[in-house]
């Protein structure tokens, strides 16, 4: 079904790098071309923030600094000359971006669950599981905050305001089984998110008749618009989750605790 998220993804995927001028607008420009710009600048050492395909203030500043270094017109607009310069320099750049280095550094700052700020987000369908998970996390020393929103973009905004170390976005599915996902786009993925997603998948119980838990990289709004490491967890069906909420919560809490001491 081509819903709103699918349509937005199709539109964003339609822009190749260099197809249009990229600059700071309101609302902000989004697209695969923006993500490629962020990746190219980041590989050259210019800080654009997360490679999320959203042209924000940090991307604007990075474009300006790049233009200054290259002797280009400093108009803060990624136009034909800036695109040509980035393409020309690309063979000299490495594959590691500033965003990736920053995430690894931040993850190594604390090696304990005690005091970790954990955001637990849902759209109103996972109240029982999220409540049990919050209780388990607080019991082992984490600072757990529950965020409920009507849609994931609003949830992402609230998560950023809470300023957690990590976020878990929980959805109750209709099909039997579970899936964990982390932020990934072309040329970049969240190292901490991937590690946590695999830990959660390994801790979740395997019920008879259920398929194995899958782990995938995605760029849905809750993953791309949140600043901290974020993992989306989908578990279903609802009646089974209701019966086993304490078991699922304990499994996810163990994964978060392990991740806190071994973040990547």
Write the layout of secondary structure elements.
Blueprint: H1 4-13, H2 32-43, H3 57-70, H4 80-89, H5 98-107, E1 117-122, H6 127-139, E2 143-148, H7 152-162, E3 166-172, E4 177-185, E5 188-189, H8 191-203, E6 214-218, H9 221-224, E7 229-236, H10 238-243, H11 245-261
Parallel strand pairs: 1-2, 1-3, 3-7, 4-6
Antiparallel strand pairs: 4-5, 4-7
Features:
264 residues, alpha/beta, Muramoyl-pentapeptide Carboxypeptidase, domain 1, Aminopeptidase, 2 domains, seven-stranded mixed β-sheet, 11 helices, 7 strands, 45% helix, 16% strand, elongated
What does this structure look like?
It is a single chain. By secondary structure, this protein is of the alpha/beta class. 45% of the residues lie in helices and 16% in strands. The chain is built from 11 helices and 7 strands. The chain has helices at residues 4-13, 32-43, 57-70, 80-89, 98-107, 127-139, 152-162, 191-203, 221-224, 238-243, 245-261, and strands spanning 117-122, 143-148, 166-172, 177-185, 188-189, 214-218, 229-236. It is elongated.
């Amino acid at each position: 079904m081509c819903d709103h998220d699918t349509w937005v993804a199709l539109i964003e995927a339609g822009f190749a790098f260099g197809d249009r001028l990229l600059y700071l607008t309101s609302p902000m420009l989004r697209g695969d071309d923006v993500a490629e710009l962020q990746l190219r600048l980041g590989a050259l050492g210019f800080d654009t923030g997360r490679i999320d395909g959203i042209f924000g203030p940090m991307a604007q500043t990075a474009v300006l600094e790049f233009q200054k270094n290259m002797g280009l017109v400093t108009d803060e607009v990624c136009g034909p000359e800036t695109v040509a310069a980035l393409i020309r320099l690309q063979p000299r750049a490495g594959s590691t971006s500033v965003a990736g280095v920053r995430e690894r550094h931040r993850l190594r700052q604390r090696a304990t669950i005690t005091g970790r700020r954990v955001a637990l987000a849902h759209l109103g369908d996972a109240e029982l599981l999220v409540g049990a998970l919050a209780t388990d996390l607080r019991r082992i020393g984490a600072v757990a905050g529950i965020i409920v929103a009507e849609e994931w973009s609003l949830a992402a905004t609230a998560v950023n305001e809470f300023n957690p170390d990590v976020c878990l976005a929980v959805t109750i599915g209709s099909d039997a089984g579970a899936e964990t996902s982390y932020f990934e786009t072309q040329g970049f993925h969240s190292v901490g998110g991937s590690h946590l997603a695999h830990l959660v998948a390994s801790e979740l119980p395997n019920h008879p008749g259920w398929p194995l838990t899958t782990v995938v990289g995605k760029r849905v709004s809750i993953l791309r618009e949140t600043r901290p490491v974020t993992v989306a967890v989908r578990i279903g069906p609802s009646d089974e989750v209701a019966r086993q909420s304490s078991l699922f919560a304990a499994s996810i809490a163990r994964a978060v605790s392990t991740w806190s001491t071994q973040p990547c």
